[in-house]
């Protein structure tokens, strides 16, 4: 039996027409429908023409949101020797070696992003069962396995996000806060679209973009007109 919508949600759904909206119009509507009692995020849900069970149709990459995420990102680093000091000096919230691996094994998860140096990955691998389901396992594709700790920490603190297509070929990404201006949200959404197009899997055939819906955390889904977003120049969004 379908769950009955609250009066608030019924009113919000009544504002959204079942049609693709021009990007700026959609983002203004997203802001208008963000009426929860907490700061809501802006989310994008993008269906792509891929089947991730095939290795050449998988999408996993990172996007640097020019206007940031609106969130405080807690970064942990697993490294050794001088690299631990480098990580701390670069702004890592937590940094350590074997002892940090032990703390994580014991349930310490006070971070949003985990970065590791390549020489520590054989030991970090034992954390796979803990970190994998939470999307926290370091990976070269995600930019979280690197010796350049200073750059990686700065980028993730500034608004770099890792994302991947789920097993049904849908990408779910938070691209800012509903409190951002529609203009800033558009800059971030355009950056996300361009990143996905740049990283189109080699095995993707036919129509790549199937649909894109945006919403506030507790708001209704709003369809965005794909050609309008893709044809827009980055300079127009900015």
Automatic annotation (TrEMBL):
GO terms for biological process: regulation of translation; translation. GO terms for cellular component: large ribosomal subunit. Pfam families: Ribosomal_L1. The keyword Amino-acid biosynthesis does not apply. Keywords: Repressor, Ribonucleoprotein, Ribosomal protein, RNA-binding, rRNA-binding, Translation regulation, tRNA-binding. One of its GO terms (molecular function) is tRNA binding. The keyword tRNA-binding applies. Belongs to the universal ribosomal protein uL1 family. PANTHER family: 54S RIBOSOMAL PROTEIN L1, MITOCHONDRIAL (PTHR36427), LARGE RIBOSOMAL SUBUNIT PROTEIN UL1M (PTHR36427:SF3). Part of the 50S ribosomal subunit. Protein L1 is also a translational repressor protein, it controls the translation of the L11 operon by binding to its mRNA. This is Large ribosomal subunit protein uL1. The lineage of its organism: Bacteria, Bacillati, Cyanobacteriota, Cyanophyceae, Coleofasciculales.
């Amino acid at each position: 039996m379908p769950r009955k919508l609250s009066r608030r949600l019924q009113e919000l759904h009544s504002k959204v027409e079942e049609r693709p909206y021009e990007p700026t119009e959609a983002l203004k509507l997203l802001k208008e429908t963000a009426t929860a009692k907490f700061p809501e995020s802006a989310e994008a849900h993008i269906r792509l023409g891929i089947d991730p069970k095939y290795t050449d149709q998988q999408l996993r990459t990172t996007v640097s949101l020019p206007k940031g995420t609106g969130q405080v990102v807690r970064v942990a680093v697993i490294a050794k020797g001088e690299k631990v000091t480098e990580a701390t000096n670069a702004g890592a919230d937590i940094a350590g070696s074997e002892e940090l691996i032990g703390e994580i094994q014991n349930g310490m998860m006070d971070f949003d992003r985990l970065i590791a140096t390549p020489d520590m990955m054989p030991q970090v691998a034992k954390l796979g069962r803990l970190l994998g389901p939470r999307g926290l396992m370091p990976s070269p594709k995600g930019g979280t396995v690197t010796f350049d700790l200073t750059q990686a920490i700065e980028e993730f603190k500034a608004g770099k996000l890792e994302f991947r297509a789920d097993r049904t070929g849908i990408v779910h990404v938070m691209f800012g806060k509903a409190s951002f201006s529609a203009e800033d949200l558009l800059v971030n959404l355009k950056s996300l679209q361009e990143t996905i197009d740049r990283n189109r899997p080699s095995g993707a055939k036919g129509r790549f973009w199937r649909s894109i819906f945006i919403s506030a955390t507790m708001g209704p889904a709003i369809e965005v007109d794909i050609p309008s977003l893709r044809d827009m120049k980055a300079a127009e969004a900015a």
